[in-house]
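On clarity, I found the account of how folds are encoded harder to follow than it need be. Since the whole study asks how a given chain folds, the encoding of that fold should be made plain. For illustration, here is how one protein appears when written out as sequence plus structure tokens:

:::
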Amino acid sequence: EIYSIKPNFFNTITMKILSLVFCFSAVSAFGFMPNVNTNVNKAALGVGRFGGNKGPMVQHLKVGEPSSVTSLSAEASGEAALSVKGGGPLSGIDIPLLLYFVFWYVGNYYYNVTNKLALKAAGGSAGFPMVISSLQLGVGSLYALFLWLAPDARSKPSITMDDVVKMLPVAFCAMGAHSASVFALSSGSVSFGQIVKAAEPAFAAVLSQFVYGKKVSKAKWSCLPIIIGGVILASVKELDFAWSALISACIANLFAAFKGNENKKLMETPGLKDRLGSVGNQFAIVSILAFLMSLPLVLVKGESFGAFFELYKTNPTISFNLLASGLWFYGYNELATMTLKKTGAVTQSVANTAKRVIVIVGVAIVLGESLDPMKLLGCAIGIGGVFLYSIIDQLVGSK
């Protein structure tokens, strides 16, 4: 049984995932920022571009002549900071961006695994899905506060109360999307939930056209039947099919579509970007607000924090996977935002499509979920339709 984890195996997995979490945290908070010029730093240490020694660590400086560090700094400032320069196989590769993609995919994969393990151990949809979704947001909020308090980790935003009020719709939609998604994954398989969530463009198109008054091209509309048809085909042979999973995943898509449109409106606020200071700060504030909004939802659902914590204290599978899934969720979402802001539209489409495939297939194999040929065909059609939806305007022109 995949959910019956032996202590030794569990400890091994714990150490591996925690090491990845620490690496993940370091990437998000301190490292691999695209404007960091590694050539200058290495020059200051007397180290070559690929680790080779360029001379003694301490060199004599002649009066009246510029130092090698100053010269290299001036030279390096004119280079593209994101690219690894020089010959060899790494020439022209954007290492920081590549690491962003790696940690984004790893984080998304491990979030889905740890989230499902926590939900299963806590009783599935009949257990504490809303408590778990709320506490996952809480774990991310604590991590965000830590980054603001830790020395040299992340500068605090200088937003006003009016800015916070304007961020409430985005936070509410983020909370709704996350809570509905967790409930969907508690009711059915991860792979099925991800396939339904891949249909988000259909919800986004309807909202953009009829609620926000933003025209959607005919070419995009023509892709929607492909996406919906793929989801229907995947549902036919779904062994863990449940209407609650399908409806919850659709609600998550609706909230996610609203969030995207509300976020665009929010970022049009004059001076808000400067007051936030960074993408990380924006995501942190939204996460904290979403966590606070999720607390009443737990009571509405009729779940008890007290009963959950009694289970939490006696079940290591729940305690570990709850904390791990909260960190993975916060980390991969922040990195996804940072990654997509540094890529073009086509790259974003390919990245999102690849992520869906990796998560659906990878998690299904690890958790022992069904991979019926009809389900895989529907998955391929649906995700292919999403990819086509994302790039079709570039292919045929917006009409």
Observations:
- Residues 1-8, 29-86 have pLDDT under 50 and may be disordered.
- The radius of gyration is 23 Å.
